[in-house]
Amino acid sequence: MDSKELKNLVKEKYSQIALNEKEVNIASCCGATDVSTEVYNIMTDDYSDVPGYKKEADLGLGCGLPTQFAQIKSGDTVVDLGSGAGNDCFVARHETGPTGKVIGIDFTPAMINRARKNADIHGYNNVEFRQGDIEDMPLSDSSVDVIVSNCVLNLLPKKDRIFKEIYRVLREDGHFSISDIVLVGELPEALKEDAEMYAGCVAGAIQKEDYLSLIQEAGFQNVTIQKEKAISIPDDILRKYLNPAELVDFNSGATGIFSISVFASKSLQKKFQLLPLTKEPGCSPGAGCC
Question: Do 221 and 264 touch, CB atoms closer than 8 A?
């Protein structure tokens, strides 16, 4: 599929996913694949104790906690790319406070509608949701302090364009914290070519080193991975795509699927507290997340 077809695929899939219950999404690959009976929580981190968290806004579609490293200050203007039902926006609002502003951008109308309803329920008049394409953001140049995103960039084909757009809209002392899926080693062709795996945050992922290179090529400084965990796709999902021999080969460890949380700043003028890398076990039976 070309770039336009892939984006239409993601938009169609996420219109359906917006109607899913969280339990369906977290037991599948971002709500796009069949539900696993082997692993309860495949990709997501636990938000329940995070200040600002609203259960009804959590669709279980993330792969990290980007706000954990975003260093949001009171009064900041924060943008969440691929804002879904509003979960990370509401956490960011807690950090930026009533004097700040939070903008969520999503290109799926169903997600925008759900997020706006959630904001209205809580009376959040400084949280705004805009329908738009994060490859061409509906934002002015140098207008944003902090950008966050949670398991979204891997869904879109022009990742280089997205990082250039992030650079454009950030103020000179601005920065981002993004959680995303990356690869080490090549996925089997059956996974790379499958539409459900693309919308499921896996087939659209690129090599970890290529991902970091795109950030640097866009002009960012202080590029730092602050959290990393392995993602294990359960066998009962993989069997739909791989024959027994391919499944054994895939599980041999030649290919790694990882969730990473990456921090970067637009310039070196401002000093940031860059925490040591945290490595967590992947989600597999016995890893404490099933």
Answer: yes
Which residue, 235, 240, 237, 281, is CA-closest to 258? 281
Question: Can you tell me which residue has the tokens 């609203």?
Answer: 54
Q: What's this model's pTM, rounded to 2 decimal places?
A: 0.92
pLDDT in tens, 235-270: 999 999 999 999 999 998 888 999 999 999 998 776
Token code pair at residue 231: 């993602």
Q: pLDDT tens for residues 155-190?
A: 998 999 999 999 999 999 999 999 999 999 999 999
Rounded Cα–Cα distance for residues 241 and 227 (Å): 29
Architecture of domain 3-280: 3-Layer(aba) Sandwich (3.40)
Are the C-beta atoms of 193 and 203 separated by less than 8 Å? yes
DSSP string, 33-96: SPPPSS-S-SSPPP-TTSTT--GGG--S--SS-GGGGS---TT-EEEEES-TTSHHHHHHHHHH
- What is the C-alpha separation between 70 and 145, in angstroms, rounded? 10
**Hey, where are the domains in the chain?**
3-280
**Paired strand residues for 130:** 105
- Here the tokens at position 208 are 């970890």
Alpha-carbon distance of 134 to 128, in angstroms, equals 15
Query: In 10 A of CB 226, how many CB atoms?
Result: 19
